[in-house]
Every structure is written in C-alpha cells, then in structure tokens.
Write a structure and sequence with these properties.
Helix 2 packs parallel to helix 12 and helix 9 crosses helix 10. The longest helix is centred in the N-terminal third of the chain and has 28 residues, at about 10-35. By secondary structure, the protein is an all-alpha fold. It has helices at about 5, 10-35, 45-70, 80-105, 110-115, 120-130, 140-155, 170-190, 195-220, 230-255, 260, 270-280, 285, 290-305. It is globular. About 75% of the residues lie in helices and about 0% in strands. It has one domain (about 5-310).
C-alpha cells in the first residue's frame, strides 16, 4: 500500500484526526495553566502575545529539526515558497493564535474549547461555497448541523436556562480563531499541491512566532523566568502540540477531501472539556447530561459525513 492509499484509509484518517483533536483539546488547559505558572495576567495582552510567539517559534524549530533528521539533510524553504509561507503564517499563527490566546484569557477553558470546535463547520462551508473544492451535499449539511447542535447543546446549562456570554474580547475572539483555523486548512490544501506540507508548516510557525515575539517584547510584553522545571516542560509540550498536530493535519488535508477531515474538528471541544475539567477544576461545567448529548450528536455527524467513505 502506497503512502497516499494508506493516508486515505478511513481507519488511518480517524486515528490521526483523533490524535490531532486530542492534542488541540489539551492546548486550552495547557495555555491557561501556563498563564498561571508564568504569572501572566489576563489583561496583559502584550505578554500573552509574547508567550504565544515563544510557543510557536519553538514548534517551528521542532518541525524543521525532526523533518531534517528524517530526510538526512537540512530542510530549507523551497524556491518560491515564501509568499505561501507568509500567507499561511498570517492565517494559521499570527491571526488565529492572537485571537485564541487573547480570547481564552477572558473565558473559561470549557467555553473556549466548545467555540474552537466550530472550525470544522467553517472549513466545510469555505471549501464548498468559496473555494469550490467540493460540493455541499446533503450528508455534509446534516453532519455540520448535528455537529453544531452538539456544540450548542454542550453550552446549555440545564438548570436555570442558558449561560452564554459572548464578549468581544473573549468568546468572539475565540470564534474568530476558529474561522482563521478553517481558512488556514484550506490554504494548506492549496499550497501543498506545489510545496512540501511539513516544510510549509515548520517555516510558517517560525515566521509567525518570531513576529509575535518581536511585537510582544518591543511593545512591553514580558515573561517571568520561574524556578520550576515543570514550567518549561509545559512550554515544550505546548510547542509539541503544534508541531505534531498541524503536521499530521496538513498531511491529512493534502490527501483527503476537506470535509472528510474537517468534520473531526468537532471532537476537539469534547477532549478540551474533559481535560479542562481534569486540569482546571471545571468539573461542574463538564459533568453534565448535555455533554453526553453533545457527544452523541457530534459522533453522529462524523458518521454521516464519512459514511460513504467506509464503503470505498
């Protein structure tokens, strides 16, 4: 079985997509724990940008280093790739994570992960309606509706009605990060036709992270050096999240239809809610009946969108 055939196998797509979603789900509690460990106030936007930039610069270095070891030679930007790297970096790192990091500082981990899961919906709509990569079929519409219903149901408070605060500096920014993630996924599919997807991922992280470091530090952002080894292990793990998840996701997007991969994004908030409950103590928000209902809706949507592929 060649690489393209194996990477389009439904079981492989499912496993790798689940790995990515688990890693992305773990990012929310990791970021919020990082704010606490490094003493970053949720109103200190410039330090938040600096913190994010360090993570993504490290992620890019790790991707290029690992790929260079695997290839037996240093992986450098391919000829003519810089415009694509720049556009991808703007969407996937600078804009997406500015919105996500700042927005997450003003909302809970559970709410942040729920909203980030809507990127799968935006990916399918953009791929079908704007970029015309594929058709918006009935199963895709049904799957998206079920996934979005899962996100909505997950946010319901069963006692006393709903409690959904949509602040511009909180929930709105997290939602915009989901839109930006969807755009970046489309760009990865487009640019990977010409360039190596791992090379694109590595250098866009390096560029985006470096810009965020420079801007954050130059304008007054600071990160305290803390005498805790665990703090730097956490920072390294956060870099690994991006290095592993975006590399795998980019490969999946290159060889599969956008909707087939993007629908799995709805699993990210489920992992995020669980991990937020464990590491942020948001158990009361997580252990509710609506979370089980959301899981059923999300899994049902994934099955409907991918049903035809299981017959290949």
């Amino acid at each position: 079985m060649n690489r393209k055939a194996s990477i389009t196998d439904l079981s492989v797509v499912f496993f790798l997509a689940m790995v990515c979603c688990f890693l992305w789900g773990s990012a929310t509690p990791a970021i919020k724990v990082g704010y606490q460990i490094f003493g970053i106030d949720n109103t200190d936007t410039l330090s938040i940008i600096l913190f994010a930039g360090i993570r993504f610069f490290l992620a890019g270095i790790l991707i290029i280093l690992f790929q260079s070891i695997m290839a037996g030679h240093f992986i450098k930007p391919e000829k003519g790739a810089f415009p694509s790297i720049l556009k991808l970096s703007l969407a996937q790192t600078m804009l997406q994570y500015f919105c996500f990091y700042v927005g997450l500082a003003h909302t809970s981990g559970v709410t942040g992960t729920i909203l980030s899961g809507t990127s799968g919906f935006f990916s399918i709509l953009l791929a079908s309606l704007l970029f015309r990569y594929e058709k918006l079929t009935a199963p895709k519409i049904i799957g998206c509706v079920m996934g979005l219903m899962g996100v909505v149901v997950m946010n319901l408070t069963l006692k006393g009605g709903t409690s959904f605060h949509f602040a511009l500096n909180g929930e709105f920014l997290v939602l915009m990060s989901a839109v930006s993630l969807a755009v970046s996924g489309i760009l990865v599919k487009k640019y990977s036709v010409r360039f190596n997807v791992v090379m694109l991922s590595g250098y866009q992280f390096i560029l985006g992270g470096l810009v965020m470091i420079i801007v954050g530090f130059a304008l007054g952002g600071r990160i305290a050096l803390v005498p805790k080894f665990s703090a730097y292990i956490l920072l390294l793990y956060m870099a690994m999240i991006s290095a592993v998840a975006y590399t795998l996701w980019g490969i999946l997007m290159k060889y599969n239809p956008v909707s087939r991969v993007s629908i799995f994004n709805f699993m990210t908030p489920l992992f995020g809610v669980l991990l937020s409950a464990i590491f942020l103590g948001e158990v009361e928000q997580a252990l509710q009946l609506n979370k089980l209902l959301a899981l059923i809706l999300v899994c049902g949507g994934i099955y409907i969108v991918n049903r035809k592929y299981s017959k290949d």
